[in-house]
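One example given next:
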Amino acid sequence: MKKKFTDLAGYSPDDASDLGIRMKLLAGEIYSVETAADWLRRQTFAQTASGRELDYRAQERGIVRKEPVAAHGTLTFSRDSTIWFDLPIDSGIVCSTAGANPVRYVTTQAAVLKAGTLSVDVPAAAQESGCAGNTEAGTVSVLVTPPTAIQAVTNAAAFSGGEDRETDDALRSRLLQSSAAAGNGGNAAYYRDYALACDGVDSASVIPRANGAGTVALYLGGRGCAPSDGVVSRVSEGLNAEREICTKVTVAPAQTVAYNVTAKVTAKTGLASADVIAACKTAVQNYFYGLGVSEQVVPAALVAALFGTGMIGDCSLSTASSPVAANQLAVCGAVTVTVA
C-alpha cells in the first residue's frame, strides 16, 4: 500500500504522520476482512470445515459427532484361600491401575464369589470414557473400594473399546462417505450409515442376502477390537425397528483376527533404542486401530507407518499374509521390534 502511494504521489508518507497512521489502520482492517473471508470459505465446504461448523454441515445430513465411549472388560476378584460362605460383590466396586496416573474401573454388574471357590469374574468398565481406559492385561491391581473379604483383583484380558470424542477427520470421513453413497432406507449404505452413527462403532461390513433373499447381515467393529454386547444390541434393536418390510437383519460383532508383527529396524543416529522401539510399537498399533471390518492388512502400509515415526532409517517386516474375511476385523497381536 505504501509502495503504491509512493509511486502515485511521488513521496513516501512518514509513519508518524496522520496519513501514515491511517494507512496502517486501513491495512490492518483489510487484513482482518481477508482473514475472515478465508475462514468463511473454508467453513463453507465439508472438505475443509472444522469444529462447530463441521458439526453443522454433518447435521444437514442427519449425522452427529459421536461422543466418547468407556472401555469395557472383565475384572477377576480373588482370595488366597476358600471360605465356607458366599461373598457378594456389588455393582459399582472401584478398582484401578497402579502408578502415578491410575485409571479407574467400575464393576457394572453384581456377582457372587461362591463358597469353596477362589475367584469370580465380573464385567466392568472404565470410570471415565475415552481411549485412556484401554489397558493391557494384568494392569488393574488396586482395590479402591474393596468388597468384604476380597484380597486381590486383576484383569486377565485387556480392557478395550474405549474411544475419545469423534475427531474432525473421522466425522468428515463419515459425512463425505454418506454424500458419495447415499442411503435410501434399504441399500447397504443405509445400514452402514446407521451402524456408524452409533457410539462405539468404528466400522461396519454389510452383507446383503447373507442367509438368502430378504436377509441382511452386519458385522460391527470398534477401535482395534469388537464392540461390546451392549453396543451390538442397540444397533440390532434400532435396525430391526426401522428395517424394510419382510427383511431380517442380523447384527453381530466382527470376529477379531490377531496379526503378529515382527520388525527389524535401523535407528537414526543419536536415538535411544528404547525410544525407537516404543515409537515403532505405537505406530503399528495405531495402524491396526485405523482398520475397519473386512479391510486387509497391507505390509507396505505397516512399513510406511514405521517410517512415519521419523526415527528409523531402514526396516524389514514380517506378518501373516492370510486374507481378512467380510465378517472379520484385523487387530494388533504381538509386536516385536528389534533395533539393529
Notes: The chain has four domains: 1-44, 72-154, 182-253, 256-339. The CA atoms of residues 96 and 104 lie 4 Å apart.
